[in-house]
Please model this.
Amino acid sequence: MRHRSRLCVVVAISLLAACQREAAEPPAPTAGVTELAVAGDAPDASLDALRKALGPARMRAQQQTPHVADDAEMAEHFRRSSLPLEEFLAEFEPRAAAGDREATLLVASRLSRCHKALAEDTPERLLQELEREQTWLESRPDGMRQANIERQLLERLQTYEGCSALPAGTIERSFQRAERLALSGDPGARSWYVDYALAGFRTREQVIRHVEEVARRRTQVRRWLEDAVQAGDVSALITYANHLNRASGDSLLYPEDRRAGIVYGYARDLAIAQRNMDSTPDAAMRQAQRERRDRLWREGPERYGDGFSPAERDAMAEEGRRIFERFYHPPSAD
Model:
């Protein structure tokens, strides 16, 4: 199965490369792209059985006292995230449609979860997960584990149900609004685009069906991500290194590059240590982070059985240090 998945991505990337050779510049956002996230036919028996099994968890969730945060901004975040999808859209979709920046990104971010939910969290799969957990718990009773598992499965089921009930075109319209905002230069929208522009293309069939659109989005994601890396954005560097290293599995964004993955992964580790050092007000913790950064600087990247020679490793370490110094460690940092 793993081999088949990797083969699909290789084929998809080849198709994208061929498509990109035909067009150097991406066109404007396409209004006619077919909705990418499509719910499968959930067997009624699985859905009914899952709802019944998670009934007690649903009742506990309804009876639970809402979390109250001391910080008003955090309290609003909890309120938004706890709203059922239908209620969330009723509140924020009209504002997003009217051009409100915050609402545009809130709606786009919330709906981006639907791609994974509709593809992977079908009632049949969730029921299978629950049954496996119940079998495991029969010989190892653990009330806290059971409650946590049921709560997580309930949340995933509710996301699936909310997403599968969306009117056709909802996700794509939200994407187009957020993309227009990103094209206008909004940093938050560009960050969202980098994370989610390719999220809806989860199978080889989807990539082939929308190959030109995938190529267009990939070109834009690469441009904005690489610009952010060179602008000193640590989060962008983490994302870039993770894609090169296949940290989240196969990627449509970049082909695997072990050497570049080590170089940028090392620069990432240095940048994270620097960021942690700069952000802590505690003198002792700041000193600990400085020592960690200095140790990373001296020792170079982690040395696993990667097949590179000592000379090659030294060259990669030096390249990673140059990236860190150029983009993530201004002269006044210490």
